[in-house]
Amino acid sequence: SSSSSSSSSSSNLHDGGAEDAGNAKALGDALAVTMLVPWGFCFLAYSLLHCTYGRDKRKTEAALAAAQAAADGGGGGMLSDSKASDRSAPAGSAAGGAPAGGIEL
Q1: Is the full-model pTM beyond 0.70?
Q2: What are the CA-CA distances from residue 42 to residues 35, 37, 38, 57, 82 (Å)?
């Protein structure tokens, strides 16, 4: 009686093996698709950023230079009282440390 129970359990394992292999393949395919497709989109997006970075950086630097020139100009070359106090402020203070817009390069 014990030999018949062991043979029936081994036949059950053997029959489910093909089904398990198919399930494992389906799981592997699903994982591959759910990982590769989003990573592919990320790769494309970062590739586009790589192509536009130089132009964006030049535009930002030009805007900062224009803002700095506007902040420095307008006094006719003479320092007004507010600009004199800005120059005496510590470099990290809000009065004179960071360029216009609060962006430091």
Answers
A1: no
A2: 11, 9, 6, 21, 48
